[in-house]
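Input sequence (469 aa), recorded before submission:
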Amino acid sequence: MKHSPFVLLIAILCCVESVLAQKKVDPEQQMIRSIYDETLTQGEAYENLRYLCKNIGGRVAGSPQNAAAVEWARQLMESYGFDKVFLQEVMVPHWVRGQKEIARVVNSKKLGTQELNITALGNAVGTGPEGVLAEVVEVQNFEQLAELGREQLEGKIVFYNRPMDQTQIQTGTAYGMAGNQRRSGPSEAAKYGAVGAIVRSLSTDFDDYPHTGSTVYTFNLPKIPAVAISTNDADLLSHLLKDDTELKLYFETHCQILDDVMSYNVVGEITGSEYPEEYIVVGGHLDSWDLAEGAHDDGAGVVHSIEVLRTLQAIGYQPKRSVRAVLFANEENGLAGGKKYAELAEENKEKHYAAIESDAGGFTPRGFSMDVSDEAYERIQSWKPLLMPYDLHKFDKGGSGADISALKPQGVELIGLRPDSQRYFDMHHSAQDVFEIVDRRELLLGAAAMSSLVYLIDSQGLYPKQRGK
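Predicted structure, token format:
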């Protein structure tokens, strides 16, 4: 049977239309692909991190280096031409480590004098030049401390030796489980008359690097000197104590807390086209500890956040809501920046729609954790097919980030970027946290993941009955 040319033409057009329909790409898929292409080929986060780490370095709150980082961040965001760049004044603690940190076992029956790798805990008082010399008592937790009581602890150095739980796949969980001995351990020991505290470094690795971190003294209790000890030396000290209960240890530190000083949150903004008074925040903290360069903690979060705005601007996306990159002051030893940002948001009656924090390093992103409503959680879960091609597969309901947590009472949906966590605590708060250990591609993937989620939240809305609003 013969077909007319017209019938054949119709058949051909139908076939072409079918093929084109199969190849049609969802606009959300196209936009996310554009975000990743831009970030992975033109992204500037890695070079920005290089400058922050190598030209400025460790950035303890209140330090000259922290002040330099504030000015660097302000100028960088202004150079990108963001709609607004401004500073928010924040009073922050000014803790100074001092130059000399030493510790040694002085009377080991096996080793005689043995040097140990230690570093002062953040916010701790120093020993001064006289140091602390006393017998050492090892405990695993506060319950053991209470059982020993003042009779066995007065005049002693308490040695907290509870390791991070190696069986926890999520290393952040293990960190949280072990963290109270560093945070509250010195004050708990002071209750029973201890004259010093030594805390096993919070690390999953076994090495000679001590890991610092903040301690918080309890009001009305004596402030005793406190240090972290490397995991290798913690094991050595524990081994020596098993055979020698009268073992004595000497340590000396010269840290001190000075008067609070002025610092700043640094804020960059792309103003929304439809709902400019609603805000989506991406953020990290600009301060770091002083033992290294603060590359993963939290230089990565700083450059991630700036890169989100740079990327959206570079691909020509005009957000409906205002998108802010907030570089918070003083996360490490006070959270003053996050608290001030939330205070000003409430005072200025700003409506914050969502906040995403990056403070878990610059490793390969795996997904997000969310402290959000059930509606918002279901909405974000519905975007998994769009994000799974980029290996973003973890969408867990749970925590978000320390800096944005103060926004929770204002009803803000809170989200945390979750990179692979297995190596993070190897260098966290230690001398190993330097630029060279950050992988360029992994860092850029984290920025692209955050940019993609910001785009989806802004364009689709967080609630099922909304689209864009």
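Checked by second reader. The first strand starts at residue 84 and ends at 96.
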